[in-house]
Amino acid sequence: MEPQQSNYKIKLFIILFFLTLGVVMGYLVLTSRKSVNSNPTQIQPTVVNPILSTTKKEGSMMLSTSDNVDRKPIGTNFSVDLWVDSNGKDITGYDAVVSYDKTKLDLVSAASDVPDVTLYKRDTATSLVITGVKTLASTATHVWVKTKIATLVFHPKIKGNFTLSVAPSDGRSLTKMVNVASKVLYPMVSSLAVEIF
Length: 197
Fold this sequence. Notes:
The protein has 197 residues and is an alpha+beta fold. The chain has two helices and twelve strands; from the N terminus they run ααββββββββββββ.
């Protein structure tokens, strides 16, 4: 009886050993998953805006200095014009994301150059978002062909070479135009280099 009882004890020990090992391993797996999921800041997903990468560009938005001189003396305000080509579409509103280094340039003012378009501005950390909205009382059409629609006035803080650009996006807002049929158009955009001396 002893060898049979001894085999029974060995089998029971092996079964209990593997059962305990399985429970411990299961516990470790569950706690490791919990710790990964409990800290959502560990994984930072990269957000890609599919609108910007897949949308056909219609029309254009560009910047130029008001006097077409790209060299400006320090301490003197200078004006930058926003020009638009609406690609034959009648526009009722637009958003333009104007990107510039706010540590080197101060925005003094922003004004609409289209009488029946109200201009709103919103500052972000790295850009200025200009929104132009056609007034409800207006019956005019806005088919813009290389038309100046807004003027921005900047004050340089330091000397150097600076880039101002109409950016496709600032991560939150998109540069776009909306036509009378409420279709959103995403224009081609460009940059302007200015030297402050």
